[in-house]
Specification:
- The protein is α+β, with helices and mostly antiparallel strands.
- The protein contains 22 helices and 11 strands.
- It has a 5-stranded antiparallel sheet with strand order 6-5-9-8-7. A two-stranded antiparallel ribbon has the order 1-2. Strands 3-4 form a two-stranded antiparallel sheet.
- The protein is globular, with a radius of gyration of 27 Å.
Length: 564
């Protein structure tokens, strides 16, 4: 809490104590709404978003997160006319700017919904287009939950994790339920629900704009946002084209964290666990002392005999691998892995391109309970408690939807003495595996249509089937030199600045073919495409597809020449 107070510059601010006392008495029922509001106006006058957030966090000891969640609208009503809007100007490409751009795009969708509700007749297709777009809002929510919330926690502001995640879930559920009603033909039930859907999304957008985003701007370091931008691109964006990475402000100065910044930049948060009381979760902050960090690393290197040589192998009980080999194995493993240690801290996940559930580096070192919405916590805690107590060693779940089957496994990790050392989560998209039948015993190269390509492990988007190595010189021996992919002449003069959508008029069929170049391009055939139509360049599209610009250009030229 001191970390948050110091970072916000609220130390020695007696107004905060008065505000918290009035809020406490209002929530406790000893002050009615009008009396409490009058006292706030007399005693504190106005309140900034970060002061409101700090006061909300300070109530943590008096009221449960669930109680505050149910009373949040009451608190906002209490501060009506007192809470002033922040007129911050955020830098271009800043993560908070990106959040606001997405919110503005969502508000346009809500305006379209309101227009459709006022139409004299119900027409299915426009509504289907709107809800195809709305389902991508989960990306915006996932970035908040995996990126912004963890960093706020490090500064002592963990209320968003518990409270705002509940609002996030309400929006997710409202969109999902409405889409199900729409697709199942329940027209009247669907229409009756839309006013509430619009209202609940508006409400969450306002909470983000009025409190969460201004507080994050005041609380976090510029270097936090630089790191956050990297993880944001891993998860993706809703409605908008991926922005360039945020590089930081030249004039940014570290915020004064008092004793925290002097303590090698460590930010400490207390968490209670079932078997570890008051465990201290220490994160290395961005303001840490570089010399101290290097000394720690040097000690670890000496302890484990790692001399930094790329060729040095490390004993893995069965076999030995270099660090590079270990990293590559995890990167190309067709399974998502997350490891949580015996203290409930997330220690590792494999950074694959096919990841099913969003992850970002901000979850590393974070208490796993804070990585889940409240409605999932009982299940998560039951698995943790059962594994720790030795009652269970394995649990599995699966998600079975049309054209999608996700298998999830939880495995208790124990050492040779049987001591609990953590939990391994493994997630796999088994849709393709379940579709297989019969037997295949011969080698068949499937190129760009293969399931392996679909998860983007290998970039062979330009390899035509006839170029794939399918024959052998001797049994079990692949030809030494496979034909090289054809390099097509760039007769269109394509560059990174070339706009994509005009090419669809020049090259018939290219728009539908884009998904075969890269599965990430399926959004080009969705209503979201109209938001990108006038600004999507080949450089932006290549970045979205996580492929090189040259590879994208060659794929477009290959399609053009093939269909001339």
């Amino acid at each position: 809490m001191d970390t948050m107070k110091q970072a916000l510059g609220l130390t020695g601010n007696d107004r905060m104590e008065v505000m918290i006392d009035i809020k406490d008495r209002f929530l406790g029922g000893t002050l009615d709404l009008e009396t409490a509001r009058t006292l706030l106006k007399e005693k504190i006058g106005t309140c900034t978003p970060d002061e409101f957030a700090y006061g909300e966090q300070q109530l943590k000891g008096s009221y449960t997160d669930e109680e505050i969640t149910h009373r949040m609208d009451d608190l906002l009503e209490l501060f009506d006319g007192i809470l002033i809007r922040a007129n911050n100007e955020y830098p271009e490409h800043h993560p908070l700017t990106v959040y606001l751009n997405e919110i503005n795009a969502m508000e346009q969708q809500l305006t379209e919904m309101e227009t459709l509700l006022q139409a004299p007749h119900f027409i299915l297709n426009p509504w289907l287009g709107v809800y195809d777009a709305l389902t991508t809002w989960r990306i915006h929510l996932a970035r908040k939950e995996n990126q912004l919330y963890p960093v706020l926690e490090r500064y002592g502001f963990d209320r968003p994790t518990k409270i705002m995640w509940t609002f996030d879930d309400a929006v997710r559920d409202a969109i999902s339920e409405s889409k199900q009603l729409l697709e199942s033909g329940q027209e009247s039930e669907f229409l009756a629900k839309q006013a509430d859907v619009i209202d609940i999304i508006h409400d969450l957008n306002n909470k983000e704009k009025e409190v969460l985003i201004p507080t994050a701007w005041k609380l976090l370091q510029d270097s936090d946002f630089i790191t956050m931008s990297q993880g944001d691109h891993e998860i993706g964006f809703a409605f908008i084209a991926p922005p360039p990475f945020y590089k930081g402000r030249p004039d940014a100065e570290p915020k004064n964290l008092g004793e925290v910044s002097a303590n090698a930049g460590h930010v400490t948060t207390q968490h209670n666990h079932a078997d570890v009381e008051n465990h201290e979760n220490t994160q290395l902050g961005v303001t840490g002392n570089p010399t101290a960090l290097l000394q720690e690393l040097a000690q670890l290197v000496g302890k484990y005999g790692i001399n930094g040589s790329p060729e040095q192998t490390h004993d893995l009980a069965v076999g030995a691998l270099t660090i590079e080999q270990i990293k590559l194995i995890f990167k190309f493993l067709p399974v998502d892995i997350t490891f949580v240690d015996e203290n409930d801290l997330v220690r590792f996940y494999n950074d694959t391109k096919h990841r099913i559930f969003p992850r970002s580096s901000n979850i590393i070192g974070r208490v796993v309970q804070n990585c889940h919405p409240k409605k999932s916590l009982p299940l998560v805690q039951e698995i943790i408690d059962s594994f720790k107590a030795g009652r269970q060693d394995y649990a599995e779940m699966w998600i079975n939807k049309p054209d999608l089957f996700i298998h999830i496994e939880y495995i208790a990790v124990r050492n040779e003495e049987g001591q609990f050392k953590g939990i391994l989560e493994m997630v796999q998209d088994c849709t393709h595996i379940r579709s297989l039948s019969g037997s295949r015993k011969e080698l068949i190269w499937e190129g760009s249509n293969s399931a392996y390509h679909a998860v983007e492990h290998i970039d062979y988007k330009n390899i035509r089937k006839e170029d794939s190595p399918t024959s052998t010189t001797e049994e079990g021996t692949v030809q030494e030199s496979a034909p090289q992919p054809t390099v097509y002449e760039n007769d269109l003069g394509l560059t990174g600045d070339t706009k994509l959508f005009p090419l669809f008029d020049v090259i018939p069929g290219l728009k539908d073919h884009m998904i075969h170049i890269n599965p990430n391009f399926k959004m080009l055939n969705s209503p979201l495409a109209k938001l990108m139509k006038h600004k999507a360049t080949l450089s932006m599209v290549a970045e979205r597809g996580e492929m090189s610009l040259d590879t994208l250009i060659q794929a477009i030229l290959a399609f053009k020449h093939k269909n001339q």
